[in-house]
Backbone:
């Protein structure tokens, strides 16, 4: 039988470590935005954000960072084979596109007179509309 060396810490979890792992980062890029890739193999390409991963600080962009995945058929009618799909890119390597100039821009936030928060382009000063939610 194995003897426990640290009986005082047996069965405990580190609350601080788990709180740190579960925290989400703040970002002003949301699903549906058009962004430009600044670094990597797809540098200079533009695409629509498909998904934002707040815990890992990454985004998946349509047509960017395409990887090949070997997929097995899970059902009889499903086709197996090698499929291509977009992989996540680091959030720091993308920048939101300015709707007025069509160039990549930084974003700042402003609270309107009616109390709603809106995103502003730093380059042109124009508001950037949030993409419509899909049902």
Residues:
């Amino acid at each position: 039988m194995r003897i426990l060396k640290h009986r005082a810490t047996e069965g405990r979890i580190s609350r601080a470590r788990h709180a740190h792992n579960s925290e989400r980062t703040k970002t002003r890029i949301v699903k549906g935005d058009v962004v430009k890739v600044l670094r990597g193999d797809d540098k200079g390409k533009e695409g629509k954000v498909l998904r934002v991963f707040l815990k890992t600080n990454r985004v998946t962009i349509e047509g960017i960072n395409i990887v090949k995945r070997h997929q097995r058929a899970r059902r009889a009618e499903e086709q197996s084979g090698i499929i291509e799909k977009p992989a996540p890119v680091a959030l720091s390597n993308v920048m939101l596109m300015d709707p007025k100039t069509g160039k990549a821009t930084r974003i700042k936030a402003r609270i309107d007179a009616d109390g709603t928060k809106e995103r502003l382009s730093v380059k042109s000063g124009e508001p950037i509309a949030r993409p419509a939610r899909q049902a």
